[in-house]
Amino acid sequence: MKIVLALLLLISSVAMSQVKLTDDNNKSDIRYSLNPSGYHYVKFTFTNQVWFRLNDNNPGTTVLSDPASQTFDIGLRRTRLQLFGQITDRIFFYTQFGLNNFNKTNGFPGYNTAGTPSNRKVAAFFHDALGEYEVQRKGNSFIRFGGGLTIVNGLSRFSQPSISTIMTMDVPIFAQATADQTDQFSRKLAVYSRGQIGKINYRISVADPFPIETNGAVPPALNANSVFAQKKHKKQFDGLFIYNLFDTEDNTTPGYTTGTYLGKRKILNIEAGFIAQKNALWRKEGVDTLYSNMNLWSIASYLDMPVNKEKGTAVSAYLGYFHTDYGKGYLRYNGSMNPATGTTLPITGVSGTHGNAYPMFGTGNVIYSQAGYKFKDGLLGSQGTLMPYASLQYSDYDRLWDPVLLYNLGVNWLMKGHNGKLTLNYENRPVYKNSTLSNELQKDMRKGSWILQYQVSI
C-alpha cells in the first residue's frame, strides 16, 4: 500500500500545475492531461464512506463472545482510490485500490479470516487492475477488448455498481451473486469486450473464478444442500445488454454503472443479463456427489431523468426480476459489515446468521425495486438539497418457508452532489429459525437497523 500511495503522491505533485477541475454530475475531476486536447489523460479519484450504525441484532448474537441484543458501531463501509486513464486514442488502463467493511471486528478469527492470529491491517487490496484496447469508434459508438482483474460481468447494473453514485445508502448485494465466494469482492480474472453500438450498450466476459478455498474462510462442508464446489473447476460466462431509449450512459470506466445522475441526463433503459458456469456447485445425495450448473439471469428497467431542469428536480427508479439458480437447496446468509462475531443460536445448515445477517443469496427468484426524488437545487440554501428514497426486495428462495421481504427508507442530504453527502437510512429485515417440519427455514420475527453514512468523494 505504501508503494501505491507513493506513486499517487508523485503523480499528484507532477500534475499539480495542470490539475483540471471539471463538473460532470456534480463530481470534480483531478486529472493530468497527456496531450493538448485533454483526450489523453491520467485521472485520480478518492471515495470514503463512513457508517455510524445502531443495529438490532439477530437472536443469540455475540460480539467478541459477549451477548449483544443491540450494537452501535463505526466503520468504513468502503474506502477506495482509483487511478486510470486514456494513454493513446486506443489504449486505456484502470486500477482501483481500497478496503471494505472495516470495523472493530475486521480480521477477527472465524469472521473475516479463518486463521490466527488476527490482523486488522490486512484489509486493503487491489479491486481492479486491467488494460483495454479500442478496436473501433464511430461517434458515440465504440468496441473495446480488455482483460485483467475486473468487475465487468453480467446479470445486472447492480452487479457492477459505481459506489460513489449510489442513490440508496447501499446497493442490493444479492445482485453481486458470487461476492467473496468465487470472486474478489465481485471482481474476477477475466477477458472481456464492452461497447456501445447505436442504442445498445453491451459487456460480455469469460472469467476464471477463484477457488472457494481461497476466500479466507473454511469452505462449507459437502452436504444435502448445494454449496460451491471444490472440484471440476470451469470457466464462467457473463453478459449484460442495455438498450438506451434516450441518452446513453457514461462508459468511461469498465463495467461500472451509475446509481443516479441527479437529473444531469435523461435515461430510460431496458436491460437483460446473465451469469452461467458449469459444475459450479455440488451436493451430497446418499453416497453420490452431484454437481449443479449455476444459471442466473435478470431483466430490468432503469429510469433517471430531470423533472424540472431549471429547478434541478429529478426522479430515479429501478425495477428488476432475477432468477437465481445455484442448485438445489443453496442458501447463504450475509450481513453488510456485520457488527457481530458469533451466535449462541445457530441455524442448522447455514452459517453466519449473527448480527445483521439475513438470507441474502439463494436458489429462487427475486424482485427488486427502488425509487427516489431529488428536490430542487438550493432547497437548503448554500447547504445543498435533499433526495429521499425507498427500496424493496422480495426474495422467494427454495429453502425459505416465508420469502425475504427487505425494505429500506432513507434520505440523502446532497451537500455537493455525490462529492459530499450524508445519508440516513432505516433497514428492516426478517429473522428466520429452524423449521420442525422440513428443510425450509421459517420466519421468526423482524429486526431493524439505523445507519448514518457520510460520503466524501472526489
Automatic annotation (TrEMBL):
Q: Where is the signal peptide?
A: 1-17
Question: Keywords of this protein's UniProt record, alphabetized?
Answer: Signal
Task: Give the domain of life.
Answer: Bacteria
Indicate what this protein is called per its UniProt record: Porin
